[in-house]
C-alpha cells in the first residue's frame, strides 16, 4: 500500500500540473453534454415543401394552411409548374413536392374522391421517410375533417370504428433528451477515460521516465493500479457532474432507479474501460499511435453501441460486434436505471458481463506490460 500511495501521488501531481490537460478533462465534457443533446434530435422539423397548385380553390387553400400550420413544414415554393418545383429539389431548396391537380375541389364534391401527387427527395432516407409520413398524416386528417362536414352526424357515428389509445411508458411526452442525454454522458466518460489512460503510459515512454520506473522494485500490478486509480476517480467525478448538474438542472432528468446500483455498475465499467486504455498503451510506442488506436475503438463504440440506432436492427455480424463492446451494456444500464427504474434482478447479467470485461482487459494489460531491468 505504501508503494501504491507514492504512485498515486505521482500520477495526480502529473495530471494537475498539466494546465492544458485540465480543461480537456473537466470542462470540455460538460460543454459537450450541454450542446450535443440539442443537436441529436430525433424530431425533424422545418421540412422544405414545394407546392404545385393547379386548382387554386378554397379546399386547396385550406389543405395548404393545414400543412403549414403543423410546424413540420416550411413553404419553400408555391406555384403551378411542376418543372419549377423540381428545380427547387435539384437545388436542394425543397425536400418534398405536393401537386394539387386541377379540379381538386370539384372532384371532391362531385366524385367524392381525388388524388394528390407527392414527390420526395430521398437522398436523406430518414428525412424523406418522416417527411412523407408527416404529410400523409396531415392529408389524412384533412380528409377526415371533410368527411365530418359532408356526412350526416348520425350516419357517421353509426359506422364501425376502432379507437386506439396509446400509453407511453417511461417517457410519456416522448422527450428525446431523456433518451439521448444518458447515452451521450456514457460516451463522454468513455472518451475521457480511454484517451487519458491510453496516453498516460505512452507519454512516459516518450519522455523516458518509464525506464526509471522499470528499474525499481515496483511490481506490474502496482504500476497498473497506480495508472488506473487516478482516472477511475476522475471518471466518477465527471459522471457525477454530468448526472447531477447538467442532466438534472439543465435537462430536468432525475434518475428513477437506485443511484447505488447505477454507481456500482459505473465502478465496474470504469475498471473495464481503463483496462482497455492501459492495454492500448502497452502496444503503442508514441502518443500518435495511442490516439489513432483509441480513436478507432471510440468510433466503433459510438456508432455501434445503440446510442443513435437500436442494435437489434443491425445485421447479425454488426450485432455481434456491438455486443462485444462494454459501452453497449453501460448505455443500456444507464437508460434502464435512469428512465425505467430497473433493479438488480433486471441487470445481473449486465453486471456479470462487465465484470468479465474488467478481468479480461486488465489481466491482458498486466500480462502484456513488459517490465525490463
From TrEMBL:
Residues 136-372 form the ABC transmembrane type-2 domain. It is found in: Cell membrane. Keywords: Cell membrane, Membrane, Transmembrane, Transmembrane helix, Transport. Coiled coil: none annotated. GO terms for cellular component: plasma membrane. GO terms for molecular function: ABC-type transporter activity. Its main location: membrane. The chain crosses the membrane at residues 21-40, 179-202, 228-250, 262-281, 293-311, 350-367. It is a multi-pass membrane protein. Belongs to the ABC-2 integral membrane protein family. This is ABC transporter permease. It comes from Niabella soli DSM 19437. The lineage of its organism: Bacteria, Pseudomonadati, Bacteroidota, Chitinophagia, Chitinophagales.
Amino acid at each position: 500500500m505504501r508503494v501504491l500511495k507514492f504512485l498515486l501521488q505521482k500520477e495526480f501531481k502529473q495530471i494537475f500540473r498539466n494546465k492544458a490537460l485540465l480543461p480537456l478533462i473537466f470542462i470540455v465534457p460538460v460543454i459537450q453534454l450541454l450542446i450535443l443533446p440539442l443537436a441529436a434530435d430525433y424530431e425533424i422539423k422545418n421540412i422544405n415543401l414545394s407546392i404545385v397548385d393547379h386548382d387554386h380553390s378554397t379546399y386547396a387553400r385550406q389543405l395548404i394552411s393545414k400543412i403549414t400550420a403543423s410546424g413540420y413544414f416550411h413553404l419553400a415554393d408555391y406555384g403551378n409548374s411542376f418543372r419549377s418545383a423540381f428545380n427547387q429539389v435539384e437545388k436542394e431548396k425543397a425536400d418534398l413536392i405536393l401537386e394539387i391537380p386541377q379540379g381538386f375541389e370539384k372532384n371532391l364534391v362531385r366524385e367524392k374522391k381525388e388524388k394528390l401527387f407527392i414527390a420526395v427527395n430521398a437522398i436523406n432516407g430518414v428525412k424523406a421517410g418522416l417527411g412523407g409520413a408527416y404529410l400523409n398524416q396531415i392529408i389524412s386528417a384533412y380528409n377526415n375533417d371533410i368527411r365530418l362536414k359532408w356526412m350526416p352526424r348520425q350516419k357517421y357515428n353509426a359506422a364501425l370504428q376502432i379507437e386506439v389509445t396509446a400509453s407511453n411508458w417511461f417517457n410519456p411526452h416522448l422527450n428525446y433528451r431523456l433518451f439521448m442525454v444518458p447515452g451521450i454522458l456514457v460516451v463522454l466518460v468513455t472518451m475521457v477515460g480511454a484517451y487519458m489512460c491510453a496516453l498516460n503510459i505512452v507519454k512516459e515512454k516518450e519522455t523516458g521516465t518509464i525506464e526509471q520506473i522499470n528499474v525499481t522494485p515496483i511490481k506490474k500490478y502496482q504500476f497498473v493500479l497506480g495508472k488506473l486509480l487516478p482516472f477511475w476517480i476522475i471518471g466518477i467525478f465527471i459522471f457525477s457532474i454530468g448526472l447531477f448538474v447538467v442532466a438534472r438542472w439543465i435537462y430536468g432528468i432525475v434518475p428513477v432507479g437506485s443511484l447505488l446500483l447505477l454507481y456500482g455498475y459505473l465502478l465496474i465499467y470504469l475498471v473495464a474501460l481503463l483496462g482497455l486504455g492501459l492495454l492500448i498503451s502497452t502496444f503503442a510506442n508514441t502518443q500518435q499511435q495511442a490516439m489513432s488506436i483509441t480513436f478507432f475503438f471510440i468510433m466503433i463504440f459510438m456508432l455501434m453501441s445503440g446510442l443513435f440506432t437500436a442494435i437489434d436492427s443491425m445485421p447479425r455480424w454488426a450485432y455481434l460486434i456491438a455486443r462485444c463492446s462494454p459501452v453497449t451494456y453501460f448505455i443500456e444500464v444507464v437508460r434502464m436505471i435512469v428512465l425505467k427504474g430497473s433493479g438488480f434482478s433486471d441487470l445481473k447479467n449486465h453486471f456479470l458481463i462487465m465484470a468479465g470485461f474488467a478481468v479480461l482487459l486488465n489481466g491482458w494489460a498486466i500480462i502484456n506490460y513488459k517490465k525490463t531491468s
